[in-house]
């Protein structure tokens, strides 16, 4: 087991270097001079040099490469703060929206997918599958706008947008975004888990269980659900880092001061350190989660050999 | 030498042995898939819908749209709700399709601008797919066929790219490319830039990030095909690597390319909306994402028609493509036949 974990970690070193290389290529070679992009063309050479010094783009290229690798990012141009401070401030807000949305969504997706798989090839199956396809065909932005308009503007059940610190105040603002992001994610998830559940339902062990006289619901909830957990684990852990990043559109539209909103701000204000930091840090967390997934995979599924 | 395989199954041999052989040529996988799609009403309608979108988008390259998408129709050059009829400046009132979907914030026809949006969707889908599919197919073929260090290198490359969340990478790349373009702005746009109308950053960002899925699929398929009899036979009779790859292996992986294309088109159209919202999208020509972005703040004040028109346009296209993509996957990937 430990040998496997160590080998898996060693194998991910080249990938980590690859991520650094891509980030480096993108922001230090392909991107134009960030100082000019930030300050505009009308700045004096001295001012530009000062910004370049702050950004560290006057350092040799190899030093910049090492800086990215070791997470040493320059201060944000717009906020004059360390990117880590920004991360500490923004990540909990994103999490407050994304974590509840994630768990509600997952539970609903699984429940609906199991129900549909149970009622396969009936009116329910076709109906729900068709609604899922309808759901994934609408652009997410339009659904957000529609929800904002209907629940915030027309029915006035929730505030249209905004945020405020403190649990109960935040809850007041968070309900609508959570609700909307659950709705947006539902269609794709139901389709995905339905396919997997159908594969499981056609498996031999299910037929055996039925032959033994196990009841329909017991087959579904003890036999099938357990085996369904394997693809669920592999599918969902990978999406966990995106909880920190938050949904970019959602946070912007509902004016939630989270990580996704920070990215949009940084894009608009040409704040290169922040864009670079978000791209790199999310990728690294993503990579870590991929490794965790692989290790967990071997733990949940005894059939997977560690070789 | 290449006729070698044909000689074995010559019809005369079968007949001389007294076995009845049907002279009707067997249906190819592609032909079978086509028949399945055309015969089923739902998928046939989807096919027609997609064809209609393509036709409209081809029409946008003719001059008939140029005046209609820019001309202000309302007197105060601002929003007007959908109306069947329009009163022209000379006092006559006629049935005007231009006003059916309302007018946008500069009093321009939403109807014509929605139709023009197909052009952006087509450009992005066709060119981004062309880039990503050719990169994905080429790398997947090389990795699967040659193995060894080539496989290691390509596996490393796609593992790395797939370790970066896709949307984030698209946003970052589009941002970087657009920054480059805006700093070089000022020079007169070339003919090519006029045709692409500001979609180049989206096309490049999507094309260079979305090849991973296909590459992985094709690599896996080639690994399987590589040791099958027909490839071994081709190698045995001395065919070169290029001929084996392009004549014998590539056609057998082509269903993966088609499935990836049809499902990729959906995500490209949707990503265009996100990029437009972030200010990274098309700036010079009407696009659906830009229309939604333009009027998103006006929605609470009751201007619903522009968002709705663009959303419905995206919705119908994506729905048709989703259903077609699923049908294609069912028809072309025999492994999935039993699943449904």
Short description:
The complex is a heterodimer of chains A (307) and B (340). Chain A has 307 residues and is an all-alpha fold.
Give a description of the structure.
- The complex is a heterodimer of chains A (307) and B (340).
- Chain A is mostly helical and 307 residues long.
- Chain A folds into two domains: 2-68, no CATH class; 92-269, MetI-like fold (Orthogonal Bundle), CATH 1.10.3720.
- Helix content of chain A is 77%, strand content 0%.
- Chain A contains 14 helices and no strands.
- The longest helix of chain A has 36 residues, at 83-118.
- Chain B has 340 residues and is an all-alpha fold.
- Helices cover 65% and strands 2% of the residues of chain B.
- Chain B is built from 14 helices and two strands, in the order H-H-H-H-E-E-H-H-H-H-H-H-H-H-H-H.
- Chain B has helices at residues 4-8, 11-16, 29-39, 41-59, 110-146, 148-162, 166-183, 191-196, 200-207, 212-225, 229-236, 241-277, 288-295, 305-332, and strands at residues 85-87, 93-95.
- Chain B has a two-stranded antiparallel ribbon.
- In chain B, a hairpin with a 5-residue loop joins strand 1 (85-87) and strand 2 (93-95).
- Classes of the chains: A mainly alpha (307), B mainly alpha (340).
- At the A-B interface, helix 1, helix 6, helix 7, helix 8 and helix 11 of A face helix 6, helix 7, helix 12 and helix 14 of B.
CATH level-4 homologous superfamily of the largest domain in chain A: MetI-like
- The CATH first-level class of the largest domain in chain A comes to Mainly Alpha
* Residue fraction in strands of chain A: under 5%
The number of domains of chain A:
2
Poorly predicted parts of chain A = none
Q: If you average the pLDDT of chain B, what whole number results?
A: 80
Gyration radius over CA of chain B: 25 Å
Give, in order, the helices and strands of chain A: HHHHHHHHHHHHHH
Oligomer: heterodimer
State the helix count of chain A. Answer: 14
Distance between the ends of chain A: 10 Å
The neighbouring-strand order within the major sheet of chain B is 1-2
Shape descriptor of chain A reads globular
Query: Overall mean pLDDT score of chain A?
Result: 82
Number of DSSP E strands of chain B: 2
Please trace the helix and strand order of chain B, writing H or E for each element.
HHHHEEHHHHHHHHHH
What is the largest interface, and how many residues per chain? A-B, 52 and 46 residues
């Amino acid at each position: 087991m430990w040998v496997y974990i160590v080998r898996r970690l060693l194998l991910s070193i080249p990938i980590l270097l690859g991520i650094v290389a891509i980030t480096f290529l993108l922001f230090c070679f392909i991107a134009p001079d960030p100082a000019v992009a930030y300050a505009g063309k009308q700045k004096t050479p001295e001012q530009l040099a000062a910004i370049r010094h702050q950004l560290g783009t006057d350092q040799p290229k190899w030093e910049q490469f090492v800086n990215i690798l070791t997470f040493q990012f320059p201060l944000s141009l717009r906020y004059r703060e360390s990117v880590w401070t920004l991360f500490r401030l923004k990540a909990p807000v994103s999490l407050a929206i994304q974590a509840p949305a994630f768990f509600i969504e997952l539970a609903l997706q699984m429940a609906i997918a199991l129900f549909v798989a149970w009622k396969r090839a009936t009116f329910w199956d076709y109906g729900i599958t068709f609604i899922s396809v309808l759901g994934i065909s609408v652009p997410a932005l339009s659904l957000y706008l529609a929800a904002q308009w209907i629940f915030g503007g027309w029915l006035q059940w929730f505030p249209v947008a905004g945020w405020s610190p403190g649990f109960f105040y935040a809850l007041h603002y968070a309900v609508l975004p959570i609700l909307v992001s659950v709705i947006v994610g539902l269609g794709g998830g139901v389709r995905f888990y339905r396919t997997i559940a159908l594969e499981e339902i056609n498996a031999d062990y299910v037929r055996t269980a039925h032959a033994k006289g196990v009841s329909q619901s017991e087959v579904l909830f003890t036999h099938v659900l357990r085996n369904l957990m394997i693809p669920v684990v592999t599918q969902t852990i990978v999406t966990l880092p995106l909880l920190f990043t938050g949904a970019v559109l959602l946070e912007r539209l509902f004016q939630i001061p989270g990580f996704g909103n920070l990215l949009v701000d940084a894009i608009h204000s040409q704040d290169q350190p922040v864009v670079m930091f978000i791209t790199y840090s999310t990728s690294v967390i993503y990579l870590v989660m991929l490794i965790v997934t692989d290790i967990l995979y071997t733990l949940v599924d005894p059939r997977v050999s560690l070789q | 030498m290449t006729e070698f395989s044909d000689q074995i199954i010559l019809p005369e041999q079968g007949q001389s042995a007294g076995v009845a052989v049907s002279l009707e040529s067997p249906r190819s996988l592609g032909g079978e898939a086509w028949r399945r799609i055309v015969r089923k009403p739902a998928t046939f309608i989807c096919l027609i819908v997609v064809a209609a979108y393509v036709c409209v988008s081809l029409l946008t390259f003719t001059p008939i749209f140029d005046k209609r998408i820019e001309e202000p129709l309302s007197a105060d050059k601002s929003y007007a709700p959908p109306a069947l009829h329009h009163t022209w400046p000379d006092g006559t009132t006629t049935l005007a399709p231009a006003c059916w979907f309302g007018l946008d914030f500069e009093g321009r026809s939403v109807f014509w601008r929605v139709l023009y949006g197909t052009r952006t969707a087509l450009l992005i889908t066709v060119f981004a797919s062309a880039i990503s599919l050719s990169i994905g197919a080429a790398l997947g073929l090389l990795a699967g066929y040659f193995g060894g260090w080539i496989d290691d290198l390509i596996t490393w490359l796609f593992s790395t790219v797939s370790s970066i969340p896709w949307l984030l990478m698209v946003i970052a790349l589009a941002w970087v490319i657009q920054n480059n373009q805006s700093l070089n702005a000022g020079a007169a746009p070339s003919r090519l830039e006029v045709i692409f109308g500001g979609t180049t950053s989206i096309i490049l960002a999507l094309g260079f990030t979305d090849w991973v899925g296909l590459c992985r699929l094709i690599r896996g398929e080639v690994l399987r095909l590589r040791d099958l009899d027909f490839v071994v036979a081709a190698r045995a009779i001395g065919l070169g690597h290029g001929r084996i790859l392009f004549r014998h292996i590539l056609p057998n992986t082509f269903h993966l390319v088609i499935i990836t294309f049809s499902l990729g088109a959906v995500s490209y159209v949707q990503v265009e909306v996100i990029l437009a919202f972030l200010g990274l999208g098309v700036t010079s020509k009407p696009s659906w994402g830009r229309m939604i972005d333009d009027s998103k703040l006006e929605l609470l004040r009751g201007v619903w028609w522009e968002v709705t028109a663009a959303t419905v346009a995206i919705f119908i296209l994506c729905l048709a493509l989703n259903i077609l993509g699923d049908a294609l996957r069912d028809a072309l990937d025999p492994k999935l036949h039993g699943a449904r």
